Amino acid sequence: MIAQGMTSREAAEAMNLSNRTIETHVRTIFLKLNVNNRAHAVSRAIEEGIIRPPGAAGNGSV
């Protein structure tokens, strides 16, 4: 959902979770990918093959 440009609030609503839960997961993702913002997280996840580039066939996690 980060790669799709969703905010934490939008992701929380889509998954019926609290915004705080999403923010915790986003921080964990940042730590694991060693990044400090959403754009860099998406870029690193693509580089590592964790997700496909937005707009790619079968978009989403691998």
UniProtKB/TrEMBL annotation:
Stretch forming the signal peptide: none
CDD domains associated with the record: LuxR_C_like
A molecular-function term among this protein's GO annotations: DNA binding
Domain HTH luxR-type: 1-49
Biological process according to GO: regulation of DNA-templated transcription
InterPro entries: Sig_transdc_resp-reg_C-effctor, Tscrpt_reg_LuxR_C, WH-like_DNA-bd_sf
Keywords of the record: DNA-binding, Transcription, Transcription regulation
Name of the protein: Response regulator transcription factor
